[in-house]
Amino acid sequence: MVAVALLGAITHQTLATWATVGTRPSSFFGRFRSVSSARFADAVVVLYAISILLGGIIYLYFRVDIRPELERAGHWPALGFFDLKEHFAAIGFALLPAYWVCWRRPRADEPAQTRTMLTSILAFVIWWGFLTGHVVNNIRGFGA
User: Fold this and answer.
1) What keywords does the record list, in alphabetical order (predicted)?
2) E strands along the chain, which residues?
3) Count of alpha carbons within 13 angstroms of residue 90, beta-carbon side
């Protein structure tokens, strides 16, 4: 549930930051822009930290029970993507302070490129982790 909430918050914020300012309010992206993107920053930081914590708790089970079976079965590409997921998650965690500072009090006179890029990088990391986790889970099967 934490991952789904994080996915929703970062996706909404990313779409809102990429929408142009002159977007019609009745359009799909216009509705995203109507909610302040800065309101999502605190939620993204907290949910990301909780996701990292919960992921760290279940990581031992993956490393000891699941990964050896996937190695024996020769699922090297999936394991490679999962290793990338770990690295991306660490990079995303390291970016959280800069992300939070950029969104803390965005001023109208500041250029939005930094916020947009940091949000986009975090969105990529979060979506990569979500999709990779599901693929690896589906290869082995939940609870098998």
Assistant:
1) Membrane, Transmembrane, Transmembrane helix
2) none
3) 6
d(CA 54, CA 63): 15
Q: State CA 119 to chain mean position distance.
A: 9
The number of domains in the chain is 1
Q: Domain range holding 26? A: 2-140
**CA terminus-to-terminus distance, the chain:** 21
Query: Which DSSP letter does residue 49 get?
Result: H
| Total residues found in the chain within this entry | 144
Return d(Cα 25, Cα 52) in angstroms, integer. 36
Structure tokens belonging to residue 112: 């939005």
Kindly state the greatest CA–CA separation across the chain: 56
User: Whole-model pTM?
Assistant: 0.83
Q: Mean pLDDT over residues 71-93, rounded?
A: 92
Spatial neighbors of 18 by CB under 8 A, at least 6 apart, are 29, 116, 120
